[in-house]
Amino acid sequence: MSVQAQPQAQLSVFDAIVITVGLVVGVGIFRTPSIVAANVGSEWMFILVWVVGGLVTLVGALCYAELSAAHPNAGGEYHFLSRAYGRSVAMMFGWARCTVIQTGAIAAVAFMLGDYLAQLVPLGPYGPALYAALSVIVFTGVNVIGTAQSKTLQITITFIEVGAVVAIILFGLFGSSGETAAVTPIAPETAALGTAMIFVLLTYGGWNEAAYLTGELEDAPRNIAKVLTIGTAILVTLYVLVNVALLSILGLEGLRGTDAVATEMMRVVAGPSGSLIVTLAIVVAALSTLNATIFTGGRVFYAMARDVRIMRWVGVWDGRGRTPANGQLAQGAIALALIALGTITRDGFKAMVDYTAPVFWFFLLMVGFAVFVLRWRHPERTLPYKVPLYPVTPIIFCATCGYMLWSSVMYTGVAGLIGLAVLAAGTPMLLFKEKEPQPLPDPAGD
After folding, report:
1. Which one, of 371, 90, 65, lies nearest residue 225 by Cα?
2. Among 33-37, 125-129, 278-282, which is the least confidently predicted range?
3. pTM across the whole model
4. For residue 313, what is the domain's CATH number?
5. Model confidence pLDDT, tens digit, residues 261-276
6. Is 445 inside any structural domain?
7. Does the residue 8 lie in any domain?
8. Domain that holds residue 49
9. Dihedral angle at the C-alpha atoms of 158, 164, 169, 174, nearest 10 degrees?
10. What is the pLDDT of residue 373?
11. Is residue 436 part of a domain?
């Protein structure tokens, strides 16, 4: 009898940190600073919200480190939720991730990539959507071929991407800014500051994907905390320095006056050629985020297959490529369908962000509560890593997630409601729940 292929510990700490950084350092940092600047009243407040957003991200990473070290598994959050609340809640999360959260994020990043590629080589009114669809097909293909190939590609792209971001930081900190407009002092309302924080946390988003690497991370219980804390520290440092650089060249009024903040900054310090450099950097950033998001996304299909009998085929782990190949193909097909849907809207990227936000923050809140639930259910368990300052740290994380959930429901409009409706549409799947979970062996899991 043949032995079923399963995840192997093939990722080093370095590999996992690079993938995590590549997931987060993406197109958002080139788009959201102008929105944040428009919702704060001073330059110091502009930097402060980025620092606070980084601290909130670190708090979340510490909570995930405890869960990931105690329960390493290729299913990541799916596994945490199953352990804390039962398989029904986990199955609903898996459905949400497959149809809303991850596939919507893939489509959003693909749309952003398509927008910038269309500036370089226009293909007509549907050019961005065509580029978006083609990019999903290509990177899904790379990930189906094998984890080793995808990992090598991710490391290469991430180093190019971080190099470009560092170059922008250096140009901003040491370049000549010339005249900057005087800042108009305003006292933003709490709602405006809340909006600023929403976009800051959106830009930091993606760090939680590291949980899906624990099924393939070497000595995951000991190393996942290093991955999350070191990766998050790198991200916070890069993002704060980027915004300091942008502010030093453009000033707060300059940031408020342009959507293409990095392009405008490079135009000031490097002339017309600067804008091309930044466009290429943004393309690289989008490629990095897209590949890393596709890489981690297919893992939840593998985890769901042990609980839902009609999904058994997507749980097959390809032993040759060492990847959940069928899950990657299913994920790619759903992402392509969302790209087709987003094409009929005015702004495909914004539509996908709105579509995913309420569902994403709801389940992130559930994961935050899981820190308390699993400690209560297993008081005798020796934890490989404990979140510092418990219970204050997870309380801060849960409060942040609750606020973001409320904000996303209030401000995302029709697209957010569609995402919630798709979540509700997954409830009939519970009728196909296995009476006993079918084990898909995971040597790092519990």
Report:
1. 65
2. 278-282
3. 0.79
4. 1.20.1740.10
5. 777 787 787 777 777 7
6. no
7. no
8. 13-431
9. 150
10. 95
11. no
